[in-house]
Design a protein that fits this description.
Blueprint lengths: L6 E5 L12 H13 L4 E4 L11 H15 L5 E4 L5 H10 L7 E5 L8 H14 L4 E5 L1 H4 L5 H10 L3 E6 L4 H10 L5 E4 L5 H6 L4 E4 L6 H12 L4 H17 L6 H9 L16 H14 L3
Parallel strand pairs: 1-2, 1-8, 2-3, 3-4, 4-5, 5-6, 6-7
Helix pairs in contact: 1-2, 3-4, 4-6, 6-7, 9-10, 10-12, 11-12
């Protein structure tokens, strides 16, 4: 199972129609687009999927649709997280995990638990989950940072926790986790802009937002780094960095949905409180894609 989490994971967006309904035809196109673009695994119902705005029936239907379209082509990770530990376990129990390889679970948000609270939260979940757990540390969204020592304690004491998606942006913290991780515990970049630096430090890949729009470009970047990296690889990374910065300039996923709209994969629709990017930013993204031909 662990080997399936190496390389390029794509955190799928959820397409919407002009009437703000889930656009299942566009979701099918997106799954095909990223699979054919070279993704190594798919992540459904993460933050990028606007999951907080989906009803429970919609979450069930989105997961079912992704499974059906993927048809076993790639490993599948599903996001199940929250700030009520018991409720997270209930949600895992209620989720159809057939065909799901792992669960991505974000640190509890808003409550701001202590490091001990974070450890006990994940210990409780890991002991009750029928699938391996990937930790997700993203303090910029949750308001709490899971420190390296806490991550390593979980990795050592909770055998059902197999990896972390690290999106703290703190390379010193990420290096501590990589250097101290027990054998088999994987560190995955949660930031597109740090994908190569994390891999150079010993990380195994990235769960990417930008790869929704540019899957084959990111596949080449990640595969090249897996093979040892090169000056050309670094140049590719620097070439796309300004565009990646644009994708996050007005939040996530508005930027990557704009890029996908430019590419004709889906409509540029979001659910409140998120809104499409400004016209100025949309034009910048459109121009960058036209000038650079990122695939």
């Amino acid at each position: 199972m662990i080997s399936k989490l190496r390389g390029l994971g794509v955190a799928l967006v959820t397409p919407f129609t002009d009437a703000a309904e889930v656009d299942y035809a566009a979701l099918d196109r997106l799954v095909d687009y990223v699979v054919e673009g070279g993704a190594d695994y798919l992540v459904v119902m993460g933050t990028t999927g606007e999951t907080p705005t989906l009803t429970m029936p919609e979450r069930v239907a989105v997961l079912r649709a992704v499974k059906a379209r993927n048809a076993g082509r790639l490993p599948l990770v599903v996001g199940v997280g929250g700030n009520d530990t018991n409720r997270v376990v209930e949600l895992i129990d209620q989720t159809n995990l057939d065909g799901v390889d792992a669960i991505l679970s974000v640190t509890p948000f808003y409550n701001k638990p202590s490091q001990r609270g974070l450890f006990l939260h994940y210990k409780y979940i890991a002991e009750r989950s029928p699938r391996p757990i990937i930790l997700y540390n993203v303090p910029g969204r949750t308001g709490v940072n899971m420190e390296a020592e806490t991550t390593l304690r979980i990795a050592r004491e909770c055998p059902n926790v197999v990896a972390i998606k690290e999106a703290s942006g703190n390379m010193e913290q990420i290096r501590k986790i990589i250097e101290g991780a027990p054998e088999g515990f994987l560190v995955i970049s949660g930031d597109d802009s740090l994908a190569l630096p994390v891999m150079k430090a010993g990380g195994v890949g990235v769960i990417s937002v930008a790869a929704n729009a540019f899957p084959c470009y990111f596949k080449e970047l990640i595969k090249s780094q897996q093979d040892g990296g090169s000056e050309h690889n670094d140049q590719m990374f620097e070439a796309i960095r300004p565009t990646v910065k644009m994708l996050f300039a007005e939040g996530n996923p508005p930027g990557v949905k704009a890029a996908l709209a430019v590419k004709g994969v889906l409509r540029n629709n979001l659910r409140l409180p998120l809104v499409p990017v400004s016209e100025e930013l949309y034009e910048q993204i459109e121009s960058s894609i036209a000038e650079n031909g990122f695939c």
